[in-house]
């Protein structure tokens, strides 16, 4: 009556004395089965603990009922929230989520794209390493819709949802200048990714609008670190070493915008070692609004990316494509939120 102890459609059919086809139609909600019988079949399925066989359902429907998701760093809190939002949307739609991590490695990304094609996923949410789009184009050519998140790919016509990093940096620098900062410095990632480039663009635009020059030492770039061949994003130790040189150039009344809250940790230590008070002598704003930001002393101001909202929007876009939407390609930049705390003149509260 069951296969390997698993309750099957045949198990339910034999229990109620009906055909397997009737059970299948009832559980699928088909109108060809009367409401009373449909209710009896569903009640019996629940009583027996029936779980639909997704593989069999896929064979019937011609769909894998699976979404692939490719990200760069699972330890990145932004991607943790993004994954959670996409997975929740997939679960609500009856899809499984297949996660692949590339660690910013192009060859791993190529293998990931090939694997998604081999596994027959219905669609993919992708954060690319931004070193070519040929492997993603092959996936698209095979009829698999793709939505890019956080980073785009030049020359690849595809739906995109990401953070408006330029706007976030622009707003942060504008706030610092409005609050009386005499100079603003940037402590940023030294990486070839559009997110970092956009933050630098917003930084420069805010200064240019005030007629303030950008000197050679205005932007300090933090090189990426590696551990066991894995790239470590936003290493507080690397930022600390770079910040030691930056702090020696800061005059009272200056401010620093960092590309990550982790960088702000390194900066805080460098400032403390020199006896420089935050925000009395130097103001600081980070990026990410990580959980520890509000609990630093002083509480760290930060640019908060809308990770959950991006995940929801990306998943919804993908399901529209999976269900046949032929609307024009969507490019959507969601604005981040500027959280001002004590490090930049706000309240020192643990929000």
TrEMBL record:
<keyword id="KW-0238">DNA-binding</keyword>
<dbReference type="GO" id="GO:0000976">
    <property type="term" value="F:transcription cis-regulatory region binding"/>
</dbReference>
<protein>
    <submittedName>
        <fullName>LacI family transcriptional regulator</fullName>
    </submittedName>
</protein>
<keyword id="KW-0805">Transcription regulation</keyword>
<dbReference type="InterPro" id="IPR046335">
    <property type="entry name" value="LacI/GalR-like_sensor"/>
</dbReference>
<dbReference type="Pfam" id="PF13377">
    <property type="entry name" value="Peripla_BP_3"/>
</dbReference>
<keyword id="KW-0804">Transcription</keyword>
<feature type="domain" description="HTH lacI-type">
    <location>
        <begin position="7"/>
        <end position="61"/>
    </location>
</feature>
<dbReference type="InterPro" id="IPR010982">
    <property type="entry name" value="Lambda_DNA-bd_dom_sf"/>
</dbReference>
<dbReference type="InterPro" id="IPR000843">
    <property type="entry name" value="HTH_LacI"/>
</dbReference>
<dbReference type="InterPro" id="IPR028082">
    <property type="entry name" value="Peripla_BP_I"/>
</dbReference>
<dbReference type="Pfam" id="PF00356">
    <property type="entry name" value="LacI"/>
</dbReference>
<dbReference type="GO" id="GO:0003700">
    <property type="term" value="F:DNA-binding transcription factor activity"/>
</dbReference>
